[in-house]
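Hey forum,

I'm writing up a methods section and want to include a predicted complex as supplementary material. The small molecule is adenosine-5'-triphosphate. I've pasted the protein sequence and the SMILES. Can someone with a working setup run it? I'll credit the forum in the acknowledgements.
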Amino acid sequence: MESGDSGRLPFSSKDSVRKRKNRKQKETMSLSSLRKPLPKLLLNNVSCMRNAQMVLRNINVSVHDGTALVLTGANGAGKSTFLRMLAGFSKPSAGEILWNGHDITDSGVFQQYKLQLNWLSLKDAIKERLTVLENVQWFEVLEGKSGKAKPALEFMGLGRLANEKSRMLSMGQRKRLQLARLLAIDRPIWLLDEPSVALDTEGVKLLEYIIAEHRKKGGIVFVATHLPIEIEDAMILRLPQRFPRRKTMVDLLD
Ligand SMILES: Nc1ncnc2c1ncn2[C@@H]1O[C@H](COP(=O)(O)OP(=O)(O)OP(=O)(O)O)[C@@H](O)[C@H]1O
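Reply by user p_vandermeer:
Happy to help. Structure tokens for the complex are below, copy them as they are.
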């Protein structure tokens, strides 16, 4: 009996050790899944209407710190609409956009969320009568910051023009000024609509560089573009064409 009992004991103790191990493994797994960071931004089945037409349909994207998302697609596919929605200018007609798990359409959340955003679009909001430097400083003042305007302009190759009236600037220089503003204000989420338009080769390189540096600090970058921009490990979201394409002059020439 004794030997029989003692013979069974090691098995039952092995069993309980194995069970304990399994339990521990399960606990570790559930802990690690708990620890998995929330996406900074989550678009959950988002659709968006403009002018009574569905422009974006059932978009699902999750974006973590350091991510770049490049939006591509034909004219009218909805790239700017996507950015406008993230900026809070348009509301999703269905689905939700969560920032740190909170719905950005909630007004309390939006007050905090909008302070994270840096918006760059074709409408450059440059004040013609201010100098180039004042145009950046003006944004700094609104932000309660100071001291970064000059270095940002110098970095973007506009140091020499800092005291010129901004109406003197060429298109590419205006774009560089917008990028200098982005650097001076330094907010974490960049929404860039066609940021490389009008930039020369060096300007595009600078743009690629500042995007890479921003991401290294954990910044998030959304870029809507038709032009190739080198962004390492970017997620690409190609928005579908909204209407069947009619024949164009290009097809006739082919
Ligand atoms: N201000 C507006 N009011 C109403 N509808 C608009 C407005 N702007 C754009 N739209 C509609 O939304 C659709 C998507 O436009 P959007 O500007 O998002 O496209 P896009 O992909 O950025 O185009 P592009 O490559 O030409 O910049 C357009 O086809 C247009 O019908």
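Some notes you might quote in the supplement: The mean pLDDT is 89. Helices lie at 2-35, 79-87, 107-113, 132-143, 149-155, 171-185, 201-216, 249-253.
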